[in-house]
Amino acid sequence: MAKKGNLITIMKLSIIIPVFNEEATIAKILQRVRREKIPGVSKEIIVVDDGSTDKTNHILKSFKNDFNIFFHKTNQGKGAAVKTGIKKSNGDYIIIQDSDLEYDPKYIKHLLKPIFDKKSQIVYGTRIDRMPHFHEEERIPRFVLHYLGNRVLSLLASILYGQWMTDIETGYKLFPKSALINVKLNAKGFELEPEITAKLLKKGYKILEVPIKTNPRGYDEGKKLNTFRDGLKAFWSILKYRFTD
Q: Which residue, 176, 182, 237, is CA-closest to 207?
C-alpha cells in the first residue's frame, strides 16, 4: 500500500494492450485508458506492437514518453504479444485491453470491484450471459456463429473444469500476476484465451464473471478473429489443457 498525493494506492494494475495494424484506433484507446481514473489503483500501461505493417508503429512512437511500449520485429500473434506484456509487467494484477475499441476501459473498475470486496481473485467480463441480440450484435450472421461458438466452448470448459462459465473467450480477464507463477503459456494466437482460463482453473482458482457490454466491429473494419480456424484451436486447447500442461 502506498500513498499518491491524498489517495491511498492499494493496487498496481498492469494493463496490457496487444496491437497489430490498428492505426485507426490505437491513439483513441490509449487516450481512453490513460483518462480512466480508478480510485486506489496505480496503472501501468504496457503496449506491445506485434510487428504492425501500417502506421501503428509510427503512432505508438509519439506516445513513448507516456506508456511502456515494446515492439515485435515480426507478427507472431495476439498470444505472443500478451505473453511479452505479462513478462514486462510489474503490477499486482493484470488485465488485457484490446486495441480495437470493442472493449470500453470504463468497465475495468467494474471488474476490480469484486477484487476489492474480496469476493474473488479472478474476474472476467462476460459479454454473453444473455440470449442473442438479433437486433444488435447478433444481427450479423457471423456474429451469431461467434455467439453460439463461444457458448459451446464455455459449456465445454464448464463441464471439463467443474466451474460454470459463460464467456471464456472474453478479452477482459483480470487476474493476479502471482497466479501465473510456474505457469507456462504456449499459445501464440487467439487460443491464449482458453489456455489462460484452463490453467487458472487447474490451479484451483475460482473465476467470477461480471456483465459488460462491447461494441463489436465488423470484418470490414479490421476484425481479425477467424470464426472457424480460431474456434477449432480454442476447442482443442480446452480439451488438451484439461489433461496436459
A: 176
CA distance 88 to 68: 9
Beta bridge partners of 94: 14, 175
Q: 48 with 70: CB under 8 angstroms?
A: yes
Question: End-to-end alpha-carbon separation of the chain, Å?
Answer: 35
DSSP structure string for 108-130: HHHHHHHHHTTS-SEEEEES-SS
Q: Is the pLDDT of residue 29 over 80?
A: yes
With 0-12 / 13-18 / 19 or more C-beta atoms within 10 angstroms meaning exposed / middle / buried, residue 13 is buried
Tell me whether residue 172 is exposed, middle or buried, using C-beta atoms within 10 angstroms of its C-beta: 0 to 12, 13 to 18, 19 or more.
buried
Residue 187 burial class via C-beta count within 10 angstroms: exposed 0-12, middle 13-18, buried 19 and up: buried
**How does pLDDT run across 114-131, given as a tens digit for each residue?**
999 999 999 999 987 665
Q: Which residues contact 141 (CB under 8 A, 6 or more apart)?
A: none
From CA 80, how far away is CA 48, in angstroms rounded? 9
Give the CA count within 13 Å in the CB-facing half-sphere of 173.
Answer: 25
Mean of all residue pLDDT scores within the chain: 88
* CATH number of 2-243, picked from 3.40.190.10, 3.90.550.10, 3.40.250.10, 3.10.20.30: 3.90.550.10
Q: Quick one: pLDDT band at residue 150, thresholds 50, 70, 90?
A: confident
Residue boundaries of the structural domains of the chain: 2-243
